[in-house]
Design goal:
about 210 residues; mainly beta; UDP N-Acetylglucosamine Acyltransferase, domain 1; nine-stranded mixed β-sheet; five-stranded parallel β-sheet
């Protein structure tokens, strides 16, 4: 198929795929953009209004919600679910096998899932070890290695990643200690949003 024919076919489906992208699935939402040298395998599912950067790889069995930004060089493997409006920074890394060997072949049932909840941010070159959940609006700093769940609105950095605070939906750090007790309250100094500390992280109050 010529580049012009591929472009026309993608337009008819309602999404844009660069002529040098390889798209093997039709499960892609309207107005999603897939850039050069990205590969989306058959069986992958991508929502609407997503942006898939150059050299990204979306494996069959991976799921992306609406409005997800996947920057250059990110691989999203089978078993990884990314909910709506998440940001996956350049070259961040997902995994789906805790003890891989090249000579041991495993089926999907042997792989561990990863869940990235809505509006979370994963910084450049961060590594998310499989079997963990990144909470809604959580913020994983660049280069971090996540080996445990991250609470909603939690800010984690380092290797292994440790929580150092909380991030507002407006992407500003909140004036609340990471170890704040359940029931504690805080208010964003930038957008005035108010939050309560819960067992799952933070919950917005207004």
């Amino acid at each position: 198929m010529t580049a012009a024919a591929k472009d026309a076919q993608a337009t008819q489906r309602g999404f844009f795929a660069h002529p040098q992208a390889l798209v093997d699935t039709g499960e892609i939402g309207a107005q999603t953009r897939i850039w050069a040298f990205a590969h989306v395998m058959q069986g992958a599912r991508i929502g609407a209004h997503c942006n898939i950067g150059e050299h990204a790889f979306i494996e069959g069995g991976a799921r992306l919600g609406d409005g997800v930004t996947v920057k250059n060089g990110v691989s999203v493997w089978s078993g990884v679910v990314v909910e709506d409006d998440c940001f996956l920074g350049p070259h961040c890394v997902f995994t789906n096998d805790m003890n891989p060997r090249a000579y041991i072949k495993k089926g999907p049932e042997a792989l561990l899932p990863t869940l990235v909840k809505n509006h979370a941010t994963i910084g450049a070159n961060a590594t998310i070890v499989c079997g963990n959940t990144i909470g809604a609006y959580a913020f994983v700093g660049a280069g971090s290695v996540v080996i445990r769940d991250v609470p909603a609105y939690g800010l984690v950095v380092g290797n292994p990643a440790r929580q150092i605070g909380w991030m507002c939906a407006c992407a500003q750090k909140l004036p609340l200690q990471a170890e704040a007790a359940i029931g504690g309250h805080t208010r964003c100094g930038s957008c005035a949003a108010e939050f309560s500390r819960t067992a799952e992280g933070l919950a917005r109050r207004n």
